[in-house]
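Explain this fold:

***
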Amino acid sequence: MTSNSQVIIQDVRADFEAMLEYVTGEQARTATADATERGLFKMLIEMGLKLLTLFFVIRSQNASRASLKRVDGSKLGYQRDSERHYVSIFGKLRFARPYFYRKGQGGQTPLDAELSLGEDCYSDLVREVSDYLGVYGAYHKAGDILERLLGLNLSTRVMQSNLGEDSEEVSAYYAQKPAPRASSEAEILVIQADGKGIPIILEETRADPVRLGKGEKHGRKKEAIVTSAYTLAAFIRTPEQVVASYYDKISLARPAKPQNKHLWATLDGKDAALSRLAEQVRFRLGRHIQHKIALCDGCEALQIRLAKYFPDFIQILDFIHANEYLWKVANALFGETNDQRFDWMKARTLQLLSGQTRQLMAELRSLAARPKISKSKRAQLLQTANYFERNLPFMDYPTYLSNGWPIASGVIEGACRHFVKDRCELSGMRWLQSGAENLLHLRAVAENNDWDDYHAYRKLQRHQRLYGSLPTNLAPIETQSLAPPHASPTNVLELPVPNKSSTYPQMPLAA
């Protein structure tokens, strides 16, 4: 494409006239809506590429080519116009900008700083769109979408590399992000933690055997520790109401939704995950927090660490996990198709929720002591009784319910499934630990509705790193939306909506 701005302007005007003819001319009278929409979209993409090229050409033409004075007082002389490649949402383009150089002092292209360009050829919009597609689907599928929709050909390697680079500021972003406003919080602060395995590529290199031995696998799994923190309004209910809701599907009044939920996942281990969670919690404490609750599924290693990092939190054993142990007993005693299980389960669940866990344990052990009971049934009865005994300090459900506290860890169970499993355990997937960690960090940004806020922060930090200062030539950040003036919301496909208190821009995806 030419670098003559007047020629480009003439081309754009001709293209616009061609588009008007395309939708109003003789051919448009018999064209289908689908064909017209597809053709118009292609023409708009081509015009966008020309307009963006025009922008770069004019900026380069207007850039000074006088000697460049540096901060230390030295000067760099203008050498030539140096070409740069740029991959935009409209396609690939090239533009030239002034290059300044002095022997022994290196060279600079100050227009790159004025335009706040990154180190590679990919535009921020391309990176953000490909990142977003990558955190929610397989990289090759994300690449297919970009190619089919926009004609961009980004390899899996490029997408994974870009996502890794774009995730580098996530920890710093959350370290500086203010705590939610007290007025937006509820009175109960709830934390949860759980683990989910991710298939990891073995680091050592060895030839794959022709046939695996018994129990052997090509790879292994490493546990990602998922944590959540949110506030919740009290929701008082009785053991009878919970049983009726759980078994008879009798609807209770809906509890309030979690407020300001924050999710995180890491492969760096339980201590790293809970240490970070403790920092997040510390910023959220205040007079508005009346109760502090830690929900756990009975994993002893997590319970020990929760007590270490959150000594003033009340630990609660997830009721659903506790009840699952009762279901195992019911299935062992009656079989998985016997309807007697339900009456037995309703009665024992009510005992569990009414504070009669010791009596329940005694009943289970009494059944296990019967002389004619099978070994498998005895083992299940004793396993459940022992599980309850170990977790008894965390099973005061009558108190929890009367205070309106949560007793089920559905938030973290759901997060383990949709946050980790649904992305990292797709068919045939195996990960390097660094690649999975990068993905989880940026996926947390998306899940926490911080996407646009984070990328605006990342770009500011990148500018400071590359050019030594924060950009001074940017408009107020909240006005930088790429949506056209007066655009209808139906004309813009937006990425997750950031917090209402955010000062960073939303990033529309023209599609």
